[in-house]
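Hey team,

Filing this mostly as a record. A colleague (T.K.) asked me to run one chain through the structure pipeline before their review meeting, and I want the input and output archived in the tracker in case anyone asks later how it was produced. No errors, nothing strange. Just documentation.

Input sequence:
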Amino acid sequence: MKYRLMDILACPICKKFPLELIVFDETKSRYKPKEWKCEEYCGFSKEFVSKLEKLNCEECLSREIAEGILYCSNCNRWYPIIEEIPQMLPDDLRDKNKDLSFLSKWKDKTPLKIIESGKPYNLVG
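Output structure:
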């Protein structure tokens, strides 16, 4: 997943923007667009563009998020990023075993708020 997607992604359940990005594994990008500037939110800097003095677009565009989590602090839902693809499905379409396996794999890098009370699944309940 490209960091620049954070400029457009919102929680599919409650529509909160921006989502929190937790990166577990990152790779070099396979390609770089000639020019790209985030309009509202910079996922690489984790800040609104209006609050940044300078955007680091070249560095951002050279990276790809291979594994991670998108987290909504409003409704406490988390969405895995697996093999560079954000999996932002509604609760009833998610695979509980797959989600719990993903959390178990990355539990040492996953914030406690997700491990203990993330929705729709967590490692406590």
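Quick notes for T.K.: Residues 3-90 form a domain with the N-terminal domain of TfIIb fold (CATH 2.20.25.10). Residues 19 and 73 are 7 Å apart (CA to CA).
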